[in-house]
Amino acid sequence: MTEAAVQVKTEERRSGRIATVTIDNQRRLNCLASPTIINLAQTFRKLSEDAALRAIILTGAGDKAFIGGADLKELGAADPDTVRLFITRLHQACLAIRECPAPVIGRVNGFCLGAGLEVAASCDMRVSSDNAIYGMPEVHMGLPSVIEAALLPGLIGWGKTREILITGETFGAEAALAMGFVQKVVPAAGLDAAVDHWLDLIGRATPKAIRNQKALMNRWERVSVEEGVYAGIDAISEAYTTGEPQAAIQAFFEAKK
Predict the structure, then answer these.
(1) 8-state DSSP, 106
(2) What's residue 124's pLDDT?
(3) pLDDT at 4
(4) In 72-227, which ranges are E strands?
(5) Which SS3 state, helix, strand or coil, does residue 53 take?
(6) In the prediction, which pLDDT does 101 show?
(7) How distant is the alpha carbon of residue 215 from its chain centre?
(8) Which residues of the chain have pLDDT under 70?
(9) Residue 129 and residue 169: Cα distance in Å, rounded?
(10) 10 Å Cβ neighbour count for 180?
């Protein structure tokens, strides 16, 4: 496999059309070099064009790592200009994940460090193997944690964010669950079943409602609470222009009969 290997598999399941995106650079713990980062961004932009896609699973190849971090060889040879380009591209990849209309499930299997944790934070939900290791060790490499690390206060609170970023200490899956970074921890052999459970729940919802909900939550991250409330009023009104609520509510009453 080349360092740019980002595998994509799209299939029809009981829950609808599902895509699985796999970072495959196992000999280097699926670490992210520039070719991989560019490929990852392009992959999610392409998937965003598929209006029938119900959800995306993002994972790492093998059982040792989700993403072990950024490519240290590339960072070690960088200068102020090239590192700016590298980190900007990484942000663009994370942004492509966050802005993808379909929900993205992070399937974390093993090491999830630095850039890997930022990619995981960009997913909508995260399920972790019980042997996963998390951390933001950039300070040990003379670097601050940047870009999507800015999402962490909203996910785990300022106190835990400061602890993780300032100490650079790694932590396990149960700690990630306790702080709210991941939503579920299961044995490694149960990862796929846990993902499938979420996919089944997503598949029961109406397609446009799921996408509208994600778009609204993305907006909530960027505006005040008051603006978010009024954005929600707009969103529920717009939902009625699709016909989905009327059909779903009618089906509910029909089923009760």
Answers:
(1) E
(2) 98
(3) 55
(4) 104-108, 111-113, 125-129, 133-135, 171-172, 184-186
(5) strand
(6) 98
(7) 14
(8) 1-4
(9) 19
(10) 11
